[in-house]
Amino acid sequence: MQIDLIETFLDLMETRSFNRTAERLNITQSTVSHRVKALEAQFNRKLFTRNKGGTAPTASGLRFLDHAKALQYQWHEATRAVENAGAYERSMRLGIQHDLAEIFAGRWLSAVRAELPATSIYVEADYSIQMNRDLAAGDLDLAVLYTPHYLPDLYYERIGEMTYNLVSTVACTVGALRPETYIQAIYSPAFDRAHRLALPHLSAAPLASGQNTAITGLLTTLGGAAYLMKSSAARLTREGVAFPIEDAPPIQQTVYAATSIRTRHAHQHRRIIGILQDLIASA
Fold this sequence. Notes:
The chain is α/β, with parallel strands linked by helices and 283 residues long. It is 48% helix and 23% strand.
């Protein structure tokens, strides 16, 4: 399989620009053209048309798209299986939302290792947008995230909720909070929408972040008010660093598990998801 042809085709389907694809893949534009022509020669069909308006896929190109994604995924899966061959029967690459990793990563992976001792595990903490891309490209086998992108080849399921509470170092009620000392949490688009509905007057703060660790550090250093994960909010309250804003509503963030649609029923995937689902439920 000439995977470079497939990956060039998929990138060009996204950029619709030979020049942009060349930049993104760090190759020359003539190399992009050569790869596309090589694919077209194999099919004896034009996959793209180029004119003054730009680059557009043909009907044949559109029909090939889903197959190209599947080929790319299978290639990455096969590459990992061969490269990681050794003492372990299989390998898994996992992604987890930054905030969830902060609380659950250690216990999650400890339980996964005990449950699946013949599986080698690679895990990375990231944001949803990148994990969705990595799943679609086959660079991750499973991800636990806040924001699903409902792509054709991916399967999502809700596995729980995380609670975020508002705490402050400067005020005791929502009405006493000032936007200029507020640190806005934007953990996901859904969280941002819920926040804007609950506290519209605090939804244009001069400082914002999308990571619980970063916001906790900012709040501790600068003072003010911010939504933190329930456990972080409780810790700062115990330490006397901040106090809860009792009249502020908690905001719930849904947690999703995402896999390829082809592996959603696989035994190891179900066990890995189930373990984290139980941890979230008991948090």
